[in-house]
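Exercise 7. Given the components listed, write out the predicted structure of the assembled complex. Treat all entries as one system.
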Amino acid sequence: MIYYDKVTKVYPDSSVALNSVSFGVEPKEFVTIVGHSGAGKTTLMKLLIAEDRPTEGKVFFESLNVHKLNKKQMSKLRRRIGTVFQDYRLIPNKTIYENIAFAMEAAGRSDSQVASDVPHVLELVNLSHKIWNFPKELSGGERQRVAIARAIVNQPDIIIADEPTGNLDPTNTFEIIRILQKINELGTTVILTTHNKGVVDAVGGRVITMEKGQVIRDDKTGKYIL
Amino acid sequence: MIFTTFKRITRTGFISFWRNGFLSFAAVVVITLSLCVFGALIFGSAFGRTLLAEVKSKVDINVYFTLDAQPSDILALQKNVNALPEVSSTTYVSSDQALADFNSRWQDNALIMQGLSEIGSNPFPAALNIRANNPSQYASIVNFLESKNPLNTDGTPIIEKINYQENKLVIDRLSKIIPTIEKTGTILALIFALVAIVVVFNTIRLIIYTARDEISVMKLVGASNTYVRGPFVISGIMYGIVSGIITLVIMSACAYWGDMAVLKLAGVDVAENFHLIVNVLSSYFMANFGQIFLLIMGAGVILGGLSSYVAARRYLKV
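Answer.
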C-alpha cells in the first residue's frame, strides 16, 4: 500500500535525515516506527504527506508517486491520509466542531453529512461535551483526541500518527493508543512513530527501528530494542 | 458544489473577522488611515482645483473704449473676439451700465456722489471684459485686439486702453506657477498613495503570517488552495468595507469642519462678498458623493482583498 523506495533526505544544512530507506506497509497493518529523536521518524511521515520532498528516491501511495502529483491530486491524496501530529496542530480560532468540520468541508462533504458525522466521531473519542469549546480550553490529551477525530472523520485509508503521545502523561498516552488500535481493528492502516518503550510494548505488532536515518531492524511482532 | 464552497468560504471569512477581533481592528485602523490619505488627496485636489479656477477667473483684461466709440462697433468687435478659440467669455459694459454700477456701489457715500454730480456728464467709458481659457493666452488676444482696432468715424481708434500691461506680471507668473502646482500635486498624490498601499499590504501580510501554521495544517488536512485562501480574502474585503465606511464618515465630518474653519478664518462676510471658497469641500463632497463612495469603497475592498490574496500565497506552498 505504501512503499518507500531508497529514500534519502538531506536538509539544507547538509544533515542527513534519511539514508536510502526502503520498506513497505501492507493494508490494515499497524506499524510502529521507533527510534531516538533525530533518527528520521518525523521526516518519513512528512515525506508521505508531501509536506517535504525527498532528496533522492521515491515514495509511493498505492501506485502513485507522492511527489509527482499536482496540487489537486495532492489535496485528494491528503484526504485519504489522516494525520495526527505531536503538537496536535488544531486551528486555534475554530471550535472543536469547526476543526473537525473543516476537514470534512475541505473534502467536499455535504452539510448534512458534516452535521451528523462530527458529533458521532467526537463520541468515538469521548469528547462530545467539549464540542463547542476552543482548543485552548482543552487539556493536552483532549486536544490529541480531537486531532485523532479530525484525522479519522473522512474515513481515510491510513492514519499516520507522528509521536502522538509525546506530550502526554501515561494515562492519556494509553487512551490514545487504545483509540488507534480500535481504528486499526476497524480496518484502517496505522503508522505510529514513538520513542516510548511502553507504547511499543502495548501495541505489539510490527516494529521498524530506525537509527541515524537508516532502518536497522524490522520485526513482525517486535519489542522495543534500542 | 461551487455554491456550497462559496457559502462556506464566506461564512468562515466572516467568523474569523469577528473572532480575530484585535487583528481585524488593527487592519481596519491601518486601512482606514490609508483611505483617509486617499480622501485627503481627493479633497486636496478638489480644493486646489477650485482655488486655481478661482484665481484663473480673477485674471482678466479690460478693454476701455473712447467715450465717443459707437456701441455697434464695440459689439461687432466683441463678436470677433468671442470667435477666438482662446477666449472663454466676454462681457460688454456700456458706459451707462458703468455709471449705474458706480452709483449703486457708492450711493451711501455723499462725498463721492457729490463729486460725480459736479462732473455733470457720464465720465465712464464703455468697456469689454475678456476672460481667456488660460492665463498664457492673453498675449495673443491683446495682439489680436491691437491689430484689429477699428476706427471711429473721425478716424481715431475706438480702443482707448487695454489694461494688459498692468496685469502682465501677475498673468505671467500664474501661467508658470499653475502647471507647476498641478504637476507637484500629482506627484505628491502618487507618492502618498504608494506609501498607503505598501503599509496596508505589510499589515495584512503580518496578519496572515500569524496564521501560517493554520494555513499549513489546512493544506495537510487536504484543503484546496481556494478553500484555504478564500476566507482570508473575505476577511480582507471586510476590512476594506468597514474601513471604507469609517473613512466616508470621517471625510464628511472633515468636509463640514473644514468649511467652517475656512469661513471662520476668512470671516463670513468677506467670504460671501467675494464669492470666495464658501463650502467648497461639502458641496464638492455632496455633488460627487457617488464617485467618492465608489472610489473609497473600491480602494478599500481592493486593498484588503488583493493584499490578503497575495499575502496568503506564499504560505500555501505546503
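Discussion: Chain A has seven helices and ten strands. Residues 127 and 142 of chain A are 7 Å apart (CA to CA).
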